[in-house]
Design brief:
By secondary structure, this protein is α/β, with parallel strands linked by helices. The chain is about 30% helix and about 20% strand. The strands form 4 sheets. An 8-stranded parallel beta sheet has the order 9-8-7-6-5-2-1-10. Strands 11-12-13-18-15-16 form a 6-stranded antiparallel beta sheet, with helices on one face.
């Protein structure tokens, strides 16, 4: 069974000062100014947006695929819609030389040149590694070379590092603490802390993405390590049942998300597999409601117009990128229909009514209960998929197609 993988540089660099017995107020102020000037830019103040190679290319990704995808992000309008990161997942790694320096394999002949190309498009580039000796696909990991690899990434101009647990489980955790789960978890946390510290030490603003499948309540400790996002579950697949299962597991995690640190329910499968347009639309809507990273994973050069329209819906993206940074909560459910609400900046709210089951017809429609949301109707809002003005009334009937969604933004709730 394949386990698919997936630091905020928030601390400022110190300047060396001579030893003094009692620093003056002016000296203290000077130090504060110096620290502020030397601090790298903050990253991930909003959920990350971009594209990752794994969900479509898997282990077949090449330098050309990354260049073509970067080109398409620009040409399709995705860059203008906010997609910035172009992330290379597993299988780029080659071997280490006698000094331990990691080299790329033949699929990626010059990583620095590739990074320069992506940057020339006004985009950022991400890369992948593991705290274990091997990656998920069996390529070279960073175990024992964390500082060395972090410096290498910075030298290449890398902007994002996805760090996937993989072989660290059997080769380190289970071997060194075979019958002690708590100790295994401590070892795992220490491994992520080590790479986070190494990335921070480079002085380059690099996004740190923890991919360890939600083990040991990662959302409780990842921010302290400078993690900017962390996977909350196992891998996503392009199937409705898996998408909905992952969505359901996000309930109760909203208090851990905010500017600089985000829950990551895994990459988008929009445009992959055989999901219907309704399923793709609902998947994208709910990741936006969750303030989740929007990392597309489809075949960009051959993207269908209807998939592009979903991925570039500015109104839905605005829900994800809202500056308040609040994650939605599931307020109530009735059978297979869920109602989620997200608080937005300026006092606005977004309401998502999601039908996870079969069609609801006029014979037995779903009835919206505004009182359970703490709201009073009628409310004027905008349907973010049709663009039309809608009026929400208490107990109003809603006919919901299977796996489809009603997503409404209400500017002035009451």
């Amino acid at each position: 069974m394949r386990i698919h993988r997936s630091l905020l540089l928030a601390a400022v660099a110190s300047l060396a000062f001579g030893s003094v017995a009692a620093p003056s107020q002016n000296t203290s102020s000077a130090r504060k100014v110096a620290k502020a000037q030397s601090a790298p830019p903050q990253v991930a103040q909003k959920p990350l947006m971009g594209w990752n190679s794994w969900n479509y290319f898997f282990g077949k990704v090449t330098d050309k695929d990354i260049r073509d995808s970067a080109d398409q992000i620009v040409a399709s309008g995705m860059k203008d819609a906010g997609y910035v990161y172009v992330n290379i997942d597993d299988t780029w790694e080659g071997t280490r030389d006698a000094d331990g320096v990691l080299h790329t394999n033949s699929k990626f002949p010059d990583m620095k040149a590739l990074a320069d190309y992506v940057h020339s498009k006004g985009l950022k580039i991400g890369i992948y590694s593991s705290p274990g000796p091997k990656t998920c696909a069996g390529y070279e990991g960073s175990y024992g070379h964390e500082e060395q690899d972090a410096k290498l990434y910075a030298a290449w101009g890398i902007d994002y590092v996805k760090y996937d647990l993989c072989s660290f489980i059997p080769e380190v955790m289970q071997k060194q603490a075979p019958n002690d789960k708590a100790e295994q978890m401590r070892m795992m946390v220490a491994a992520y802390a080590k790479m986070g510290k190494a990335l921070k030490a480079t002085g380059r603003p690099i996004v740190f993405s923890l991919c360890q499948y939600g083990w040991d309540a990662v959302w409780e400790w990842a921010p302290e390590l400078g993690g900017n996002l962390w996977r909350t579950t196992g891998d996503i697949t392009p199937h409705w049942d898996r998408v909905y299962a992952i969505l359901s597991q996000q309930e109760g995690l909203q208090k851990y998300a905010g500017p600089g640190h985000w829950n990551d329910p895994d990459m988008l499968e929009v445009g992959n597999g055989r999901m219907s347009l309704a399923e793709n639309r609902t998947h994208f809507s709910m990741w936006a409601m969750l303030s989740a990273p929007l990392l597309a994973g489809n075949d960009l050069p051959h993207m269908k117009p209807e998939i592009r329209d979903i991925l570039t819906n500015r109104d839905v993206i605005a829900i994800d990128q809202d500056k308040l940074g609040r994650q939605a909560a599931r307020v109530y459910s009735e059978g297979e229909v869920d109602v989620w609400m997200k608080h937005l900046s300026g006092g606005a709210v977004a309401i998502a009514v999601l039908n996870a089951g079969s069609d609801r017809y006029a014979t037995h429609p779903f009835h919206l209960n505004l009182a359970k949301l703490g709201l009073h109707g009628p409310l004027q809002g905008k349907d973010l998929w049709t663009g039309k003005t809608v009026e929400l009334k208490d107990n109003m009937p809603l006919e919901l197609p299977s796996h489809d969604i009603l997503l409404v933004r209400i500017a002035k709730p009451r």
